[in-house]
């Protein structure tokens, strides 16, 4: 996610009419999906790390969804069939958590519920990579990761220069890998970075919303993954488009927050407030999604 150019930039007026029209359709769709999310308040089960639980839950609530941090293997058979979507995040992975993740993914598939995989630091260890590959084989509806994580899934090998959850690669470096992973799972793959790229293996769009300061706030990536789960819950027929909308709107909220924030701490607070307060005029003006 990057700093947006203002929509009133003179270059905007020089773009081909069909390109402007396509971007306008993406904006309208993002608003329609956000309205639907607020109306339906989908229940999103998050099996995630302890670092991200607070921000992830608050991002979901501020957008209009209902979070449930249920991860006990004993609850999943009864609880997961009730949810509208599942988010699986491998941030603080342990052998005790992996069975819960697999059972929840299996249950979601059985019940026809969409689920999102966040392969945090996929290439940093053999244990973590093996878990990610196993979950990838369970056909997540969406995979969302940074450039290094998506490349690790594609290569299937440990990155001995890994910096954990921090990416060593630009999002653009992982687009072809993302397309290959999407074809493997039959789902959608999103690569976060200066530009967020979304692909279903054939189509590719870029999301040009966000601010660099998000990198200084822990769990923002985890939280946008959960937001993707909420969006695909309310529009499972348009997973590709819903994924792009979630990433873009999260980025728009951060842009607005950065105008009043004094640093990472206050941006975190404003991000939650401004995601909650997004209105139609702002969405139609600020969403920047382009087809590649």
From TrEMBL:
One GO biological process term: thiamine salvage
Protein's pathway: Cofactor biosynthesis; thiamine diphosphate biosynthesis; 4-methyl-5-(2-phosphoethyl)-thiazole from 5-(2-hydroxyethyl)-4-methylthiazole: step 1/1
Gene3D superfamilies documented for this protein: 3.40.1190.20
Spans through the membrane: none
Region described as Disordered: 1-22
InterPro entries linked to this entry: Hyethyz_kinase, Ribokinase-like
Keywords tagged on the record: ATP-binding, Kinase, Magnesium, Metal-binding, Nucleotide-binding, Thiamine biosynthesis, Transferase
MF terms in GO: ATP binding; hydroxyethylthiazole kinase activity; magnesium ion binding
Catalytic activity: 5-(2-hydroxyethyl)-4-methylthiazole + ATP = 4-methyl-5-(2-phosphooxyethyl)-thiazole + ADP + H(+)
Family: Belongs to the Thz kinase family.
Role summary: Thiazole kinase involved in thiamine salvage pathway.
Name of the molecule in the record: Hydroxyethylthiazole kinase
Organism: Oldenlandia corymbosa var. corymbosa
Lineage summary: Eukaryota, Viridiplantae, Streptophyta, Embryophyta, Tracheophyta
């Amino acid at each position: 996610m990057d700093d947006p150019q203002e929509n009133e930039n003179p270059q905007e007026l020089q773009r081909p009419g069909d390109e402007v029209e396509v971007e306008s359709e993406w904006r309208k769709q993002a608003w329609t999906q956000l309205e639907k999310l607020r109306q339906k308040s989908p229940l999103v089960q998050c099996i995630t790390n302890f670092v991200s639980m607070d921000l992830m839950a608050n991002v979901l609530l501020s957008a209009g969804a209902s979070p449930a941090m249920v991860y006990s293997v004993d609850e999943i058979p009864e609880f997961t069939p009730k949810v509208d979507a599942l988010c699986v995040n491998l941030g603080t992975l342990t052998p005790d958590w992996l069975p819960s993740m697999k059972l929840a993914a299996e249950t979601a598939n059985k019940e026809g519920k969409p689920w999102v995989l966040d392969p945090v630091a996929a290439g940093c260890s053999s244990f973590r990579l093996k878990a990610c590959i196993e979950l990838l084989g369970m056909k997540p509806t969406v995979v969302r990761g940074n450039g290094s994580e998506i490349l690790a899934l594609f290569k299937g090998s440990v990155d001995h220069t890994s910096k954990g959850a921090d990416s060593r690669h630009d999002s653009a470096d992982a687009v072809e890998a993302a397309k290959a992973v999407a074809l493997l799972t039959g789902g959608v793959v999103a690569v976060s970075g200066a530009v967020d790229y979304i692909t279903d293996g054939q189509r590719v769009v870029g999301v040009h919303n966000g601010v660099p300061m998000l990198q200084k706030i822990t769990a923002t990536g985890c939280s946008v993954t959960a937001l993707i789960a909420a969006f695909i819950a309310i529009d499972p027929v348009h997973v590709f488009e819903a994924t792009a909308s979630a990433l873009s709107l999260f980025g728009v909220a951060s842009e607005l927050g950065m105008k009043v924030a004094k640093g990472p701490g206050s941006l975190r607070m404003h991000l939650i407030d401004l995601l909650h307060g997004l209105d139609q005029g702002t969405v139609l003006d600020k969403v920047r999604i382009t087809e590649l």
